[in-house]
């Protein structure tokens, strides 16, 4: 069988890349660069997922980027970037992690708007009316906003993964430390400035409380659209199980600052397919522009580096689930 010309061209394109990779490996393995070589290996082993044009800078350098990602100087070189893949067995149980206390005042809910990247529900945060405390946090953190990340289809969409499992969507509730900082903007740039609760969404039964949000989405279809959205308690979007993982990380949108204490809920909440489909009717674009569906608005996974993911719950049973108990002497006797 004749080899297509396109295949020959692909092979020709591949050879220089292989030579470049081989050269890079030799350089990084040199004694002064061992740390870089380890990072290179970590990046190569990062799980691959479909990458959004609007969130993945290193794969879209020669394309028109979403405005959030236009400035190349915002690409960080830190070691505490988010999101990450949470490896259940590698997380460390911390008995000092108390349950998180959540106290939201529905009257602090202000509006819902399409910011051209997701849709945000924002809250009045001049006082401690809507706060979280406890868990890994030393202070009260005020609720600023919540938003979602989702995929083009139900097979992916969450920013974090658990044992490389993707969920169709992920909710982020963003809080800031009003004890140490005077404003959300200041807190977002400093260590221990933000606390973000992550909640996975999975396919299942219809979510009655979420439907109030879904019904509002047609009115904010385009970028910059904003409507009032009052009296909503986001605690209704939380799972009943108090268990969570926590780690030190970053914002997943520019400026990508490493200011976030992440609190990832172990138990997902159920939503139905039609509700997620309504998320996908939103647009990245403003009125009058060529329409681009708001999908795959998640950042690719980042390497864990030298961080530890702590859990508020014991999980020895996961490690021992395949262990078969040895029979006692009486059981073993005929």
Automatic annotation (TrEMBL):
The Alpha-carbonic anhydrase domain, residue ranges:
54-313
Superkingdom as given in the UniProt entry: Eukaryota
Kindly give the InterPro entries that the UniProt entry links to this protein.
CA_dom, CA_dom_sf, Carbonic_anhydrase_a-class, Carbonic_anhydrase_a-class_CS
Pfam families cross-referenced by the UniProt entry: Carb_anhydrase (PF00194)
Catalytic reactions of this protein: hydrogencarbonate + H(+) = CO2 + H2O
- GO MF annotation, one: zinc ion binding
What is this enzyme's class at the first EC digit? lyase
The record's comment on protein family reads:
Belongs to the alpha-carbonic anhydrase family.
Write down the PANTHER family for this protein, in alphabetical order. Answer: CARBONIC ANHYDRASE, CARBONIC ANHYDRASE 5B, MITOCHONDRIAL-RELATED
Function, in words: Reversible hydration of carbon dioxide.
- In Swiss-Prot or TrEMBL terms, this protein is called Carbonic anhydrase
Q: Taxonomic classification, please?
A: Eukaryota, Metazoa, Chordata, Craniata, Vertebrata
Could you tell me the gene encoding this protein? CA5B
């Amino acid at each position: 069988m004749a080899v297509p010309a396109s295949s020959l061209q692909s092979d020709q394109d591949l050879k220089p890349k292989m030579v470049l990779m081989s050269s890079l490996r030799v350089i990084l393995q040199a004694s002064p660069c061992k740390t870089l070589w380890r990072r290179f290996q970590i990046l190569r082993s990062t799980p691959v997922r479909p990458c959004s044009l609007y969130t993945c800078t290193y794969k879209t350098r020669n394309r028109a980027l979403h405005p959030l990602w236009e400035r190349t100087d915002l690409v960080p070189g830190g070691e505490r970037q988010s999101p990450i893949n949470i490896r259940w067995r590698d997380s460390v149980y911390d008995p000092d992690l108390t349950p998180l206390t959540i106290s939201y005042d529905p009257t602090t809910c202000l509006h819902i708007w399409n910011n051209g990247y997701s849709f945000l529900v924002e809250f009045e945060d001049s006082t401690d009316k809507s706060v979280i405390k406890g868990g890994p946090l030393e202070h009260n953190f005020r609720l600023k906003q919540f938003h979602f990340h989702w995929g083009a289809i139900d097979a992916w969409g969450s920013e974090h993964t658990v044992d490389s499992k993707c969920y169709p969507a992920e909710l982020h509730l963003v809080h800031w430390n009003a004890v140490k900082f005077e404003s959300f903007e200041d807190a977002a740039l400093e260590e221990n400035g933000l606390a973000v609760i992550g909640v996975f969404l999975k396919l299942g039964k219809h979510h009655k409380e979420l439907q109030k949000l879904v019904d509002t989405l047609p009115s904010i279809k385009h970028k910059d659209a904003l409507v009032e959205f009052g009296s909503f308690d986001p605690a209704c979007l939380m799972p009943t199980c108090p268990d969570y993982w926590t780690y030190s990380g970053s914002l997943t949108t520019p400026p990508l600052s490493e200011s976030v204490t992440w609190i990832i809920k172990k138990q997902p909440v159920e939503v139905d397919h039609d509700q997620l489909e309504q998320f996908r009717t939103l647009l990245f674009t403003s009125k009058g522009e060529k329409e681009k569906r708001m999908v795959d608005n998640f950042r690719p996974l980042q390497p864990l580096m030298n961080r530890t993911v702590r859990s508020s719950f014991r999980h020895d049973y996961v490690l021992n689930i395949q262990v078969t108990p040895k029979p006692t002497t009486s059981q073993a006797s005929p």
